[in-house]
Design brief:
Layout: H1 30-38, H2 42-45, E1 50-52, H3 55-60, H4 71-79, E2 83-86, E3 91-102, E4 116-117, E5 120-121, E6 137-144, E7 147-154, E8 157-166, E9 174-175, H5 186-191, E10 193-197, H6 198-208, E11 242-244, H7 270-289, E12 294-296, H8 297-305, H9 312-321, E13 330-332, H10 337-370
Antiparallel strand pairs: 1-10, 2-3, 2-10, 3-8, 3-11, 4-5, 6-7, 7-8, 8-9, 12-13
Helix pairs in contact: 4-6, 7-8, 7-10, 8-9, 9-10
């Protein structure tokens, strides 16, 4: 640990935590402490304790979800607020918000596809065999059509970083599915360091003790849903497995999703609120009632009445109303391809507003790091 860190306010890097996986966690190296001390956000960072990803935690992250279904929540919680260090250029980023995706398409319809390129394996976050800092854990940049995505891949899942902040530079916070400010090649990823917030680790292990865990925490469920725009007829779309770090735990710091637009207080557009409320209703219905979840006609009509007539959202809600036939007052949400198609169009219509409103959240994130 860097001797320059004060005893009153310091990032206690490497103090051991008693937990089921290990009794002694490896400390973060002095160069991490040096970056934190030099960062313009040092006061906030020095309130946290970071420990290096241990072999036992790496092993936990590669355990099967069929036999351990609560691990989707455990691993998401553990990696929330972690640091990723590019040892090639000494860049350091904090992952303020993360979303977890299974590799098994049965367990998660939004799993990373196994793309083939000219008959061979395509781009992937799946850890490759060979020398790496952590066994079967690979931080890497995945180049998607919308831009570079910062991910942490294991054999069982990949974590998508949806809010991040470079700690070694004057860069602004980045919110959303792309992270252009911190890029990791496969070679750099195999050597990159991962340092976990000890509080996130403790919370993760609390979840692991509960085999019935069905979310990443007790907070607002809409904030735990991933930013998804398709497959609304599949229950795995509504798994509440998004987590955030402790510095940015305020809801105003969270990246917005099609589900959470409805619950933040500063959005004034009745059409945007109505569209998000429909999607939130679908999500909460599936979470609470599973296969019995329905979308009621009276709710769709009420939300449509608040929309600007002739707007895209008003038109889509009209199409949803057209799905209620033979005086039907409610339609199922799951296994309803026609409704899913309309909800997809509804969610896509919210995309530009999410980008716009995430700009406000970026300012909140910077404030959270600056004001502690």
């Amino acid at each position: 640990m860097s001797a320059g860190l004060s005893r009153s306010r310091r990032a206690t890097l490497g103090a051991p935590i008693e937990c089921p996986c290990t009794s002694s966690l490896p400390p973060a190296p002095d160069d991490i402490a040096g970056i934190i001390k030099a960062s313009r956000f040092s006061r906030a960072l020095e309130t946290r304790q970071f420990v290096e990803l241990s072999p036992d935690v790496a092993k936990l992250m590669n355990k099967d979800w069929v036999r351990n279904p609560n691990l989707k929540f455990v691993c998401s919680r553990i990696l929330a607020g972690c640091l990723i260090h590019n040892t090639f250029n000494n860049q350091l980023v904090i992952a303020n918000c993360v979303e977890i995706y299974a590799r098994n398409n049965v367990l998660d319809v939004h799993s990373e596809s196994c793309n083939l390129s000219k008959g061979g394996p395509g781009q992937t976050s799946f850890p490759s065999s060979g020398d790496s800092k952590y066994e079967n854990v690979l931080p890497i940049t995945f180049y998607a059509p919308k831009g570079p995505r910062l991910q942490i891949g294991t054999t069982i899942f990949n974590i998508l970083v949806t809010s991040s902040l470079r700690l070694d530079s004057q860069s602004k916070p980045v919110l959303g599915c792309v992270t252009p400010s911190f890029l990791l090649s496969a070679e750099e990823g195999r050597c990159a360091g991962v340092y976990i917030d000890s509080k996130s680790l403790e919370e993760g292990y609390k979840l692991m003790k509960d085999p019935q865990a069905n979310s990443t925490g007790d907070g607002d469920i809409s904030l735990q849903l991933r930013q998804l725009t398709s497959e609304f007829d599949n229950a795995t779309t509504f798994i509440p497995c998004r987590s955030w770090g402790y510095i940015t735990q305020n809801a105003c710091c969270q990246p917005l999703t099609v589900f959470s637009l409805a619950i933040v207080g500063y959005i004034k557009s009745p059409s945007i609120i109505a569209a998000s409320k429909i999607l939130y209703s679908a999500a909460s219905g599936v979470i609470l009632q599973d296969e019995e979840a329905v979308l009621e006609l009276k709710d769709v009509r009420r939300y449509r009445e608040s929309c600007q007539e002739g707007s895209v959202i008003h038109t889509i809600l009209g199409s949803i109303i057209g799905l209620y036939r033979n005086r039907c007052q409610a339609i199922p949400i799951l296994h309803n391809q026609a409704l899913s198609n309309e909800l997809k169009q509804l969610s896509l219509s919210l995309g530009p507003k999410i980008v716009e409103y995430n700009g406000h959240a970026m300012a909140q994130v910077e404030g959270a790091f600056s004001n502690l």
